[in-house]
UniProtKB/TrEMBL annotation:
Keywords, ordered alphabetically: Hydrolase
Name of a matching Pfam family: Lactamase_B_2
Keyword Hydrolase set for record: yes
SMART domains per UniProt: Lactamase_B
Entries under InterPro entries matching the protein: Metallo-B-lactamas, RibonucZ/Hydroxyglut_hydro
Domain Metallo-beta-lactamase: 34-226
GO MF annotation list: hydrolase activity
Protein name as it appears in the record: MBL fold metallo-hydrolase
Organism this protein belongs to: Qipengyuania algicida
Length: 255
């Protein structure tokens, strides 16, 4: 299995509008962060996209992504889903819509906001066939397990993907570690984890919480994502243990 980090930034990206880099060195290219999204592929070349970030078009162009086999959504917040229209081009040449999955609430919210994506409109075909996550789904060649995660007053979905004898977990936008999360994520080869900043935050994991989740799940490798402007890449690399990788746009890792 391979993981390509399409975007590694928080909801406003780095830099923020106004050329606000915060504590991030603007001369370090890995500090330039688009909104979070990842692409997971297996040995057969099947690809699952997790989240359609606001920056999806530029991410797909940057990495020459020209096909997908399925899309998963973690939740309905704008930075995770408002790039959904950029899936239109990936529908071209297909005989059927792209398969899409999310929890029941997220499915309802996406359908309400983007009905034309799922129902078609004015003679144009539907782009995505979205369904609520099942109990034991096999999606595009991956065994996928999902878990509900607290995200402040909202909820987000964490994913465990297995293929080719490896496991990758994607857990972004959570503010509390639950026993259900520990059980779902246990023993992952790669844990891609929310890490907004160093100080605690009411709706996101901070550095100590990300490290705690990796320890409690015995993850072989922790990859930090959803980083804000306080998280300078080089400074953070010097702080974290050897098994921790600071994520950046374009990072590729094989499990």
């Amino acid at each position: 299995m391979k993981m390509l980090m399409l975007g590694s930034g928080t909801s406003t990206g780095v830099p923020r509008v106004g050329n606000d880099w915060g504590a991030c060195d603007p001369e370090e290219p890995r500090n330039r962060r688009t909104r979070v999204s990842v692409l997971i592929s297996n040995d057969a070349g099947q690809r699952i996209l997790i989240d359609t970030s606001t920056d999806l078009r530029q991410q797909l162009l940057a990495h020459r992504v020209d096909h997908l086999d399925a899309v998963l959504w973690t939740h309905d917040h704008a930075d995770h889903c408002h790039g959904i229209d950029d899936l239109r081009v990936l529908r071209y040449g297909r005989s059927n819509p792209l398969p899409g999955f999310a929890n029941t609430y997220t499915v309802s919210q996406l359908k309400r906001r983007f009905d034309y994506i799922f129902d078609g409109q004015h003679g144009y075909p539907s782009i995505v066939d979205i369904k609520p996550l099942g109990q034991t789904p096999l999606i595009a060649g991956f065994a996928v397990e999902a878990v509900d995660m607290p995200h402040g007053p909202a909820r987000s979905t964490g994913y465990r993907l297995e293929a080719d004898g490896a496991t990758i977990v994607y857990a972004t936008d959570f503010s509390e570690i639950t026993s259900e999360m520990i059980a779902c994520f246990d023993g992952a080869d790669i844990l891609i984890c929310d890490c907004l900043r160093r100080k605690p935050h009411p709706t996101h994991a901070h550095l100590d919480m990300a490290l705690e989740l990796a320890e409690r799940t015995q993850a072989a490798r922790l990859v930090l994502t959803h980083l804000d402007k306080s998280m300078d890449y080089r400074s953070l690399c010097q702080e974290v243990p050897e098994h921790v990788t600071v994520g950046f746009d374009g990072l590729e890792i094989t499990a």
